[in-house]
């Protein structure tokens, strides 16, 4: 925290763009008397205002915008004030305001001990700078009071005419002159405070349910009412406390009863716990019993199942033994059917081979060659299908060409009709030409005609423009005609204008006609050549897309290809007939071959010859013999000879073979089942013994359950009893809480009332002290004593007749001559004496404020703005003499700054500045050197 400053004087002030000072202007001040002299309106008071603004941040007049130099291009104004205290510590206050009103204030300090004279930034912003200035200059208790600081400023900067106004006021008998003391000291505030205290009222809210609220004023009647409310509330509080104690006793009784019930309940719960443990043990045994019974039932079921299984297996063994006994008969049947089937198939195969051999003796092909015949047939069939597809495609194409020809003829007829409809004259010129050429040439004729019409319209538009220009030239012309050069009178002018206007109208009509003709021609052209639906465009488009299809050589080629395909198809059909006969014989032989393979016998020959046919006849006889031999060994002579029967008996034979294997397996299973059957029988006997030993568990379980039910019922009754006690206790606790809350509320209300009584007594005492006959009177008397002493000290330094003053409580001043003991009232003093008294009064009031408010001397400077206003020459001379005397003797204030238009005051100055205003440039300051 920075140390306090005292005895500050001004070092310099700098103005830029402030009021009339557009250029940056700096004034330096020293100790002694500085006089700023200049004509009225030159800008002297602006310097005083700049100092005031730097110290307070407030303008003496106008707005921020008005304080900025008028018509200046700069968007801000700036004031910088430098002050120095008695220890040579320097502070710089910078106040900058933008046109928006935004403040850019800074406060810097340079301590006397800093040899490098560096300035430290200690505050920024308008409020920050204001607070820091008060903190540096005033005592801690006064630094936050803006009014104290302003009082000191008002005594250090005396505005225009204020000095003489004070002199005149001090000479008068008006009671208002006491304001010179009361306002700076704030004594009038005591009277206002006394009045406000009389009107002041305080409202107490939510005191209690008896007294919801209470409003009292600072008077004895309110004090009496508060005391009555306190007595009433105190009595009710005492009654509440008695009831509260009774409820507490009742609660203690219920809580003891509840403790007994809870002990009994706990014992019951322990008994229930023991019974539950017994119950768990019995349930475990019961579960063991159930498991034993369940296990016995499972074993019993398994026992019965094994018993049934034994019976079933015995029956199955018997069945299998019977089945295997028929094996030899089935084998004979299978062999008989097999050889008889071979006989039939070999016989059929022999017949087909004989057919091939007898019908195609010249065809000495092998069986593999017969296979290739089949492939040839398939190839011929594929070729025939492909030829049929090609023929169908060519026929379709031929039909398409015929349709295109018909469509072309249709479009051609429509195009011819459209051409005739367009313009019979143009159509005539195109006779003898093919239709496509006609359409194209007619299109060119349309375009040529459209261009011709457009040229005609352009020519007419140009003529219209020329005629209009002629008319304008004729209208402007005087003397001679601008067209023919002859003399131009009004009659000739009217005649020419009429002639050209008539030509304009004719051309306009012709232009409209040509435009309509052009519009119709364009419409016809667009419909004929730009619309897709135009018969001409349809024809051209069709011709363009289908021209290739209509070539005669292509059509002839298609017809030739169709004839060639039909010839090949005819040749294929005769070849196929021969091939299919060979194929049928081959297929039949192959079928026999497959049947022989399925039976298990294959004919081993490839060539179809007489030797192989003879060999095949022997094989057929051998198959017949073997089949009859095996058939005679069977028990059934009427068996079916077929592949199905063969497969059936073969399957039965396989089943018999499987049954033989199964028979051995079943015998082993029977032995295992018998062993398990005997083991199960023993296990069931053991389980029956265990079930018998646990039979009493169910009775014991039933008994324990009955005991548990009884205990649970007792517990429920006790819990209900305990619950009722809990409810009663909770109800009592709530009532006690309500009592406590109400007691607390009443006690709080009593505290509020006691506090209010105390505060009211204090306020009554304060109000008594604030009465004009108490503190204000004491302070004023003290101030008058200091004022009288300080004024006498100042006057004694001047060469006046009267060197002392005596001031009464109404600020009536009496001047005293110590040498002659003579005295006069201030109103009887001379002009010079009254001015000297006024100055002494200002200097003395600075001492009063500093001693009674600030606690020390804050400023060692005094600024007087136009102190000679309303003074005659004699009193001005007296004022000059006072200033000169104070200056020569080093009395008064260390730094006095006089702002004046009166040249006489220069005589009193140690330093003199002239302030001048140059029209269009602003105010300027220059030092006057002696």
Summarize the structure.
The protein is an alpha+beta fold and 930 residues long. It has 21 helices and 19 strands. A hairpin with a 7-residue loop joins strand 9 and strand 10.
Which short descriptors sum up this protein?
six-stranded mixed β-sheet; flat; ATPase_AAA_core; alpha+beta; Helix Hairpins; about 950 residues; P-loop_NTPase; ATP binding; Rossmann fold; ATP hydrolysis activity; zinc
Please count the beta strands (DSSP E, at least 2 residues each).
19
CATH C-level class of the domain at 9-138 and 858-928 is Alpha Beta
| Average of the residue pLDDT scores | 78
Helix-residue proportion: 55-70%
CATH A-level architecture of the domain at 9-138 and 858-928: 3-Layer(aba) Sandwich
CATH level-3 fold name of the domain at 9-138 and 858-928: Rossmann fold
Tell me the fraction of residues in β-strands, as a range.
5-15%
Keywords: ATP-binding, Coiled coil, Metal-binding, Nucleotide-binding, Zinc
Protein name: SMC family ATPase
Pfam family, one: AAA_21
Organism: Fervidicoccus fontis
What does this structure look like?
With 930 residues, this protein is of the alpha+beta class. It is 67% helix and 11% strand. It contains 21 helices and 19 strands. A 6-stranded antiparallel beta sheet has the order 2-1-4-5-6-7. A 6-stranded mixed beta sheet has the order 8-16-17-3-18-19. Strands 13-14-15 form a 3-stranded antiparallel beta sheet. A hairpin with an 8-residue loop joins strand 1 (9-16) and strand 2 (25-28). Helix 5 (162-171) crosses helix 20 and helix 12 (435-476) packs antiparallel against helix 13. It is flat, with a radius of gyration of 72 Å. GO terms for molecular function: ATP binding; ATP hydrolysis activity; metal ion binding.
């Amino acid at each position: 925290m920075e140390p306090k400053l005292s005895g500050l004087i001004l070092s310099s002030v700098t103005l830029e763009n402030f009021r009339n000072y557009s250029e940056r202007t700096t004034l330096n001040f020293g100790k002694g008397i500085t006089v700023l002299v200049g004509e009225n309106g030159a800008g002297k008071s602006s310097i005083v205002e700049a100092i005031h603004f730097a110290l307070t941040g407030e303008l003496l007049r106008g707005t921020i915008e008005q304080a900025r130099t008028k018509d200046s291009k700069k968007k801000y104004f700036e004031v910088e004030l430098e002050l120095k205290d008695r220890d040579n510590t320097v502070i710089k206050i910078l106040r900058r305001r933008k046109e928006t009103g935004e403040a850019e204030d800074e406060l810097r300090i340079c301590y006397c001990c800093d040899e490098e004279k560096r300035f430290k930034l200690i505050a920024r912003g308008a409020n920050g700078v204001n607070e820091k200035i008060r903190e540096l200059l005033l005592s801690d208790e006064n630094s936050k009071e803006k009014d104290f600081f302003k009082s000191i400023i008002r005594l250090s900067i005396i505005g225009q005419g204020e000095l003489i106004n004070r002199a005149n006021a001090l000479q008068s008998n008006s009671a208002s002159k006491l304001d010179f003391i009361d306002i700076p000291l704030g004594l009038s505030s005591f009277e206002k405070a006394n009045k406000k205290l009389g009107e002041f009222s305080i409202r107490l809210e939510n005191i209690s349910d008896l007294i919801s609220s209470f409003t009292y004023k600072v008077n004895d009647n309110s004090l009496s009412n508060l005391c009555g409310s306190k007595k009433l509330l105190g009595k009710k509080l005492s009654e509440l406390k008695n009831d509260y104690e009774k409820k507490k006793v009742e609660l203690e009784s219920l809580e003891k009863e509840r403790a007994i019930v809870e002990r009994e309940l706990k014992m019951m719960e322990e008994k229930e716990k023991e019974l539950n443990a017994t119950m768990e043990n019995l349930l475990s045994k019961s579960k063991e019993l159930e498991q034993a019974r369940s296990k016995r039932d499972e074993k019993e079921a398994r026992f019965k199942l094994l018993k049934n299984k034994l019976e079933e297996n015995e029956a199955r063994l018997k069945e299998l033994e019977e089945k295997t006994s028929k094996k030899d008969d089935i084998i004979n049947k299978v062999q008989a059917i097999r050889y008889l089937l071979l006989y039939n198939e070999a016989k059929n195969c022999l017949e087909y081979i004989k057919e091939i051999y007898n019908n195609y003796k010249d065809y000495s092909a092998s069986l593999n060659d017969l296979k290739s015949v089949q492939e040839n047939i398939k190839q011929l069939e594929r070729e025939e299908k492909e030829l049929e597809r090609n023929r169908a495609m060519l026929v379709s194409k031929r039909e398409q060409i015929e349709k295109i020809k018909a469509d072309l003829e249709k479009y051609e007829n429509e195009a011819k009709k459209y051409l005739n409809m367009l313009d019979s004259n143009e159509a005539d010129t195109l006779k003898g030409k093919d239709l496509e050429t006609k359409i194209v040439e007619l299109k060119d004729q349309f375009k040529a005609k459209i261009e011709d019409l457009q040229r005609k319209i352009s020519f007419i538009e140009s003529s219209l423009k020329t005629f209009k220009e002629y008319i304008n030239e004729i209208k402007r012309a005087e003397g001679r005609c601008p067209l023919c050069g002859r003399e131009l009178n009004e009659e000739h002018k009217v005649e020419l204008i009429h002639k050209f206007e008539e030509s304009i109208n004719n051309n306009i009509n012709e232009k409209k006609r040509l435009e309509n003709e052009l519009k119709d021609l364009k419409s016809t052209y667009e419909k004929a050549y730009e619309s897709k639906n135009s018969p001409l465009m349809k024809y051209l488009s069709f011709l363009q897309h289908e021209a290739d299809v209509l070539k005669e050589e292509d059509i002839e080629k298609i017809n030739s290809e169709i004839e060639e395909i039909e010839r090949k198809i005819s040749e294929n059909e005769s070849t196929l007939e021969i091939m299919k006969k060979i194929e049928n014989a081959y297929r039949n032989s192959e079928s026999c071959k497959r049947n022989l393979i399925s039976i298990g016998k294959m004919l081993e020959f490839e060539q179809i010859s007489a030797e192989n046919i003879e060999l095949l006849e022997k094989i057929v006889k051998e198959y017949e013999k073997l089949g009859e031999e095996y058939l005679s060994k069977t028990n059934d002579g009427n068996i079916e000879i077929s592949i199905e029967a063969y497969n059936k008996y073969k399957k039965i034979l396989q089943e018999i073979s499987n049954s033989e294997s199964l028979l051995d397996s079943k015998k082993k299973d029977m032995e295992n089942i018998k062993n398990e059957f005997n083991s199960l029988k023993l296990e069931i006997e053991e389980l029956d013994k265990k079930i018998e030993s646990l039979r009493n568990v169910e009775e014991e379980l039933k008994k324990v359950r009955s005991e548990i039910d009884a205990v649970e019922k007792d517990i429920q009754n006790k819990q209900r009893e305990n619950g009722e006690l809990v409810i009663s206790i909770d109800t009592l606790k709530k009532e006690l809480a309500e009592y406590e809350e109400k007691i607390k509320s009443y006690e709080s209300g009593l505290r509020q009332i006691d506090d209010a009584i105390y505060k009211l007594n204090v306020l009554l005492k304060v109000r008594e002290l604030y009465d004009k006959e108490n503190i204000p009177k004491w302070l004023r008397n003290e101030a008058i004593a200091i004022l009288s002493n300080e004024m006498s000290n100042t006057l004694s330094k001047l060469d006046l007749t009267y060197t002392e003053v005596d001031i009464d409580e109404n600020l009536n001043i009496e001047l005293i001559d110590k040498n002659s003991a003579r005295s006069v009232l201030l109103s009887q003093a001379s002009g010079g004496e009254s001015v000297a008294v006024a100055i002494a009064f200002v200097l003395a009031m600075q001492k009063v404020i500093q001693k009674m408010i600030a606690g020390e001397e804050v400023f060692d400077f005094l600024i007087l703005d136009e102190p000679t206003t309303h003074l005659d020459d004699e009193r001005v001379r007296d004022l000059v003499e006072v200033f000169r005397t104070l200056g020569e003797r080093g009395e008064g204030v260390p730094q006095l700054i006089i702002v004046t238009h009166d040249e006489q005051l220069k005589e009193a100055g140690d330093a003199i500045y002239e302030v001048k205003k140059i029209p269009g440039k602003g105010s300027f300051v220059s030092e006057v050197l002696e």
